[in-house]
Amino acid sequence: KQEVTQIPAALSVPEGENLVLNCSFTDSAIYNLQWFRQDPGKGLTSLLLIQSSQREQTSGRLNASLDKSSGRSTLYIAASQPGDSATYLCAGINAGGTSYGKLTFGQGTILTVHP
Amino acid sequence: DAGVTQSPTHLIKTRGQQVTLRCSPKSGHDTVSWYQQALGQGPQFIFQYYEEEERQRGNFPDRFSGHQFPNYSSELNVNALLLGDSALYLCASSVLRTSGAEAFFGQGTRLTVV
């Protein structure tokens, strides 16, 4: 069974801190990893897609890495701001045959950045 | 580009009723997937449509069915609604034959079954 686990489940930090969110997956059929942000009651906003041929991707203050051999991905947020407060979800994208393109999500990390 | 759009945004239904949710994919995308997100949980895969056919399906009962139209838009139908079907339903679009298969999501439809 394909599983994606996110640690920690919740995180509360003061503004300005650098932080790391962790994602691990057990299925070798996961070939890409996508990070999303979700505000309360809203849809998912794509933050970064890391393909299996890449080791990391950067967008502004965000940096995500992928290590397929260990089944881990991390999302690094630099100089956190109150506006970063949201739930962060990672999703493994399946590469296996008819399962191609299926996303398997973790439970998410609820991030609160206080002023 | 309007991105992925879903309608309606909110819906209240009674147990036993049927519901239809709609999704228009991002321009240029040919694949639509549906996900169910219960409160406090990650989204769960329901099914995926490509070329107007259900291509793969998650662990959901036959009460959940869908359709994809020639313009790539999609519908999700749920029959005989249960209280446990109350959730945020998310539509995602992507381009199947790419190396990335990056998914883009709509704002979701909040379904409440009473």
Structure overview:
The complex is a heterodimer of chains A (115) and B (114). Chain A is built from no helices and 11 strands. Chain A has strands spanning 4-7, 10-14, 19-25, 30-38, 44-50, 56-59, 62-67, 72-77, 86-94, 103-105, 109-114. In chain A, strands 2, 4, 5, 9, 10 and 11 form a 6-stranded mixed sheet that branches. In chain A, strands 1-3-8-7-6 form a 5-stranded antiparallel sheet, with no helix packed on it. The model of chain A has no long low-confidence stretch (mean pLDDT 92). Chain B is built from no helices and 11 strands. In chain B, strands 2, 4, 5, 6, 9, 10 and 11 form a 7-stranded mixed sheet that branches. In chain B, strands 1-3-8-7 form a 4-stranded antiparallel sheet, with no helix packed on it. The radius of gyration of chain B is 13 Å and the shape is globular. Classes of the chains: A mainly beta (115), B mainly beta (114). Chains A and B meet through strand 4, strand 5, strand 9 and strand 10 of A and strand 4, strand 5, strand 9 and strand 10 of B.
**What is the gyration radius of chain B calculated from CA atoms?**
13 Å
Unreliable stretches of chain B: none
Question: Mind summarizing the main beta sheet of chain B?
Answer: 7 strands, mixed
- Our measurement of the CA-to-CA distance between the termini of chain B, rounded to an integer number of angstroms, reads 36 Å
Please give the number of β-strands of chain A. Answer: 11
The helix fraction of chain B, in percent, is under 10%
Report the uncertain regions of chain A.
Answer: none
What shape does the CA trace of chain B take? globular
Bin the helical content of chain A.
under 10%
Q: Report the β-strand fraction of chain A as a percent range.
A: over 45%
Number of helices of chain A: 0
Sketch the topology of chain A as an H/E string, one letter per element: EEEEEEEEEEE
Strand count, sense and barrel status of the largest sheet of chain A are: 6 strands, mixed
Q: Mean pLDDT score of chain A, rounded?
A: 92
